[in-house]
Automatic annotation (TrEMBL):
Domain of life: Eukaryota
Role, per record: Catalyzes the hydrolysis of both di- and triphosphate nucleotides (NDPs and NTPs) and hydrolyze NTPs to nucleotide monophosphates (NMPs) in two distinct successive phosphate-releasing steps, with NDPs as intermediates and participates in the regulation of extracellular levels of nucleotides. By hydrolyzing proinflammatory ATP and platelet-activating ADP to AMP, it blocks platelet aggregation and supports blood flow.
UniProt keyword Membrane present: yes
Organism field: Astyanax mexicanus
Name this protein carries in UniProt: Ectonucleoside triphosphate diphosphohydrolase 1
Entries under Pfam families matching the protein: GDA1_CD39 (PF01150)
InterPro entries the UniProt entry points to: GDA1_CD39_NTPase
Subcellular location(s) of the protein: Membrane, Caveola; Membrane
């Protein structure tokens, strides 16, 4: 301590010089980090967009997707930006006035035009995929289905986007793309971790799709994917006519046929509708579908009367499944091969709407049956009072729909009370709806590569953290070095003095 004044006297610039060097050193390090951060930060995130129209049997939805322009091939990058419900019925409902099918899409397409930045319009692909409603219309009246598709095509081509076509997708595509969507969103494709099976329930068809390690006995039900460097053997089946609206017609038709006479007023007592429910309906509304046969008196009406009995409803719904005649080692129903269900499942669309409304999504199978039985037995007046804001058509059908869902999953697909908890009823994963549309777009824009794309070894956040850590380490080492170099000089001077 006594030597300090002498040292200072010897070299009065020593300390300021060290401070000056240290300050320069710190400024250098800070600048290095700042430059690294600024240089590597994506300056202004550029997004690309894609539009898919899901032309379902009951309604059409327009989905707008967006993704960062430079990260097309990374899983989880494409997200739903907006979804618009087209007012009115599904496009197959315009078979007698096809022009209205195209017109119905305008409000949602106008919205898409306004929310996607103008300079991206010409490169934004638009796809329309029609599902089971149009499959049925094509079976019933191919010319009408052609006209409906022409009408939607005409309207979609008037928009400034890159129109890529309107077509009826197959049930196999619907199942496969639903599976791709949930697994893409779940990020289960990049890690070879377990995938999520996909259960989709529509109005006119239903799909089951899952990875199965068992022998695939039916080529029609088997798809092989190579995605991000992993091979997947996927089982899929789409049951046309087994969407919930068509099954309602099927089971009503089963109840009408035995009491079907030409003269009397026909009263059909239905255990799947609430006690006190009474509605005049036309035979036509039940027998107008290619899924239902055997109408003799199209002009006749009947009284649809609820009796609200869960057990009897289950028995009635059960009749729409044909369990005889499996030519494989194992079947679901109607002679269709299906291996035992495996792994976790995401159940979406009407599976979710119905189970969520009935508050059954988290219950065990037995609890769900019990709750549903009580719900079905509740008088219609009380149901209406309890849910004044729910559309009456949906409200009247929840007992039936819930019973159909439990029956399809248990008696159809052979889920049991042991693996019931493997089914997750989901609407969205992140911001994006579960459904076939995202998978359809990813496939058509080649955004899911067969092999894993090369990505930087570190994500951006990790890179910045490492840079900062190294900078701090260098700084500390520098300071330490200053101290160490100062000491010997000091002690040497001390010794000399
Ligand atoms: O909020 C809801 N509650 C109950 N059911 C709904 C709700 N929203 C849609 N749905 C039903 O979901 C189903 C959707 O089927 P979609 O129109 O996709 O037919 P598809 O897939 O067979 O072509 C229809 O049965 C429709 O009534
Ligand atoms: Ca659908």
């Amino acid at each position: 301590m006594d030597d300090q004044p002498e040292m200072k006297a010897k070299n009065p610039w020593h300390r300021p010089r060290i401070i000056f060097i240290t300050v320069l050193f710190v400024i250098g390090i800070v600048s290095m980090v700042a430059i690294g951060v600024v240089q590597n930060k994506p300056l202004h995130q550029k997004y690309k967009y894609g539009i898919v129209l899901d032309a379902g049997s009951s309604h059409t939805s327009v989905y707008i997707y967006q993704w960062p322009a430079e990260k097309e091939n990374n899983t989880g990058m494409v997200q739903q930006m907006d979804a618009c419900n087209v007012p009115g019925v599904g496009i197959s409902g315009y078979s007698t006035e096809p022009n209205r099918a195209g017109d119905s899409l305008k409000s949602c397409m106008d919205k898409a035009r306004s929310i996607i930045p103008n300079h991206r319009h010409p490169e934004t692909p638009v796809y329309l995929g029609a599902t089971a409603g149009m499959r049925l219309l094509e079976m019933k009246n191919a010319a009408a289905s052609e006209k409906v598709l022409e009408s939607v095509e005409r309207v979609l081509q008037t928009y400034p986007f890159s129109y890529q076509g309107a077509r009826i997708i197959s049930g196999q595509e619907e199942g496969a793309f639903g599976w791709i969507t949930v697994n893409y969103l779940n990020e289960s494709l990049r890690q070879a971790s377990g995938t999520l099976g996909a259960l989709d329930l529509g109005g006119a068809s239903t799909q089951i799709t899952f990875v199965s390690g068992q022998k695939q006995e039916s080529p029609d039900n088997s798809i092989d994917f190579r995605l991000y460097g992993h091979d997947y053997h996927v089982y899929t089946h789409s049951f046309l006519c087994y969407g919930k609206d068509q099954v309602l017609k099927l089971s009503l038709a089963n109840e009408i046929r035995p009491v079907h006479t030409k003269t009397e007023t026909i009263v059909v007592e239905d255990p799947c509708f609430h006690p006190g429910y009474r509605m005049n309906k036309n035979f036509q509304s039940v027998f107008n579908s290619p899924c239902v046969t055997g109408l003799s008196y199209p002009e006749k009406n009947f009284v649809h009367m609820g009796s609200g009995n869960g057990t009897k409803c289950h028995a009635a719904v059960r009749k729409v499944f044909n369990d005889s005649g499996c030519s494989y080692s194992i079947c679901s129903f109607n002679g269709i091969f299906q291996p035992r269900v495996e792994g976790q499942f995401g159940a979406f669309s009407a599976f979710f709407f119905v189970m969520d409304f009935l508050n059954l999504t988290t219950l065990s199978l037995d609890e769900a049956k019990e709750e549903l039985g009580k719900y079905c037995a509740t008088p219609w007046e009380i149901i209406k009072q309890n849910h004044p804001n729910v559309k009456e058509k949906y409200l009247a059908e929840y007992c039936f729909s819930g019973t159909y869902i439990l029956t399809l999953l248990e008696d159809g697909y052979n889920f049991t009370s042991h693996n019931w908890q493997d089914i997750k009823f989901i609407k969205k994963i992140g911001n994006s709806d579960a459904g076939w549309t995202l998978g359809y777009m990813l496939n058509l824009t080649n955004m899911i590569p067969a092999e894993s794309p090369d990505t930087p070894p570190l994500p951006y956040g990790g890179y910045v953290t490492l840079m900062v850590l190294f900078a701090v380490m260098i700084l500390l080492l520098g300071l330490l070095a200053c101290k160490v170099f100062r000491r010997p000089t000091g002690s040497a001077q001390k010794e000399i003095i």
